[in-house]
Amino acid sequence: MRRIRYQEIAEVLRERLADAPVGSVLASESEMSKEFEASRVTIRRALELVRDDGLIAARQGFGWYVAGEPVRQSLESLGTIESEVEGVGKISERKIAEFAYEDAPERVRKVLDVTDVLRVKRVNLADGEPFAVVTVWCPADLAATLSRRDVERRPFYELLDIELRGATQTIGADLASAADAALLGVPEGAPLLRCQRTTTDQTGRAVLLSEHLFSAHRTEFVVDLPQAEPSMTPSGLRLVD
């Protein structure tokens, strides 16, 4: 029995996806239309067939990508990305992109109240696939003995010889710059989840400022909410003009 054109294209796509890493982005529908010499309607129907198999998914700003279980992070306690990744049975890795002792930028100076910092930019991977770009600023006096190898092997929470109290975390949205898109393996301008975290010690001093950029299609934040009283309002909600 002769197959319909979109079924033939769907079969080709299934074969290509056999070894494709989770989260990788497929060619655009326009590019596929040229490759297969088929209309956009035919390409979309083929993609929908493959999606029905659970092999791919689509999200605004990304297009189609290889589906898989996203990296989930809990917001209920002070922890590291590595612990979250390993907690769901994935292999956690980190690659250092930048390591420098430098003058603190103005916004970092305001938070950490120091003029000199260690800045570390890294890529976090789960099962070999990048899902986060993290930049951490630490007061130079606290990080004076740290090396590039130290921060590549262990998180700051384990390296700093101080007792931590907690952190304030703000989550928003951003678009991937060309540099960060290359590190995350997503298109430039793709939507990202942006998280800024300020970690304090037992005295209340801010000892770490970190910025986390997550691929929106590879990461989910999870929080369990206790049952609220009828009079309670969502005090954690802040609207940005």
Short description:
This protein has 241 residues and is of the alpha+beta class.
Task: Provide structural commentary.
This protein is an alpha+beta fold and 241 residues long. The protein is built from 8 helices and 10 strands. The chain has helices at residues 5-17, 29-36, 40-52, 81-87, 106-112, 148-153, 156-159, 178-184; strands at 56-59, 63-66, 71-74, 92-103, 116-126, 129-139, 164-175, 191-201, 206-215, 219-222. The strands form 3 sheets. The chain has a 6-stranded antiparallel β-sheet.
Structural class: alpha+beta
Number of strands: 10
Q: Outline, from the CA principal axes?
A: elongated
Range of strand content? 25-35%
Share in helix: 25-40%
Biggest beta sheet attributes: 6 strands, antiparallel
- Read across the widest sheet, the strand sequence of neighbours is 4-5-6-9-8-7
Low-confidence stretches: 231-235, 237-241
The arrangement of helices and strands along the chain is: HHHEEEHEHEEHHEHEEE
List keywords for this structure.
disordered C terminus; about 240 residues; alpha+beta; 8 helices
Structural topology:
Blueprint: H1 5-17, H2 29-36, H3 40-52, E1 56-59, E2 63-66, E3 71-74, H4 81-87, E4 92-103, H5 106-112, E5 116-126, E6 129-139, H6 148-153, H7 156-159, E7 164-175, H8 178-184, E8 191-201, E9 206-215, E10 219-222
Helix pairs in contact: 1-3, 2-3
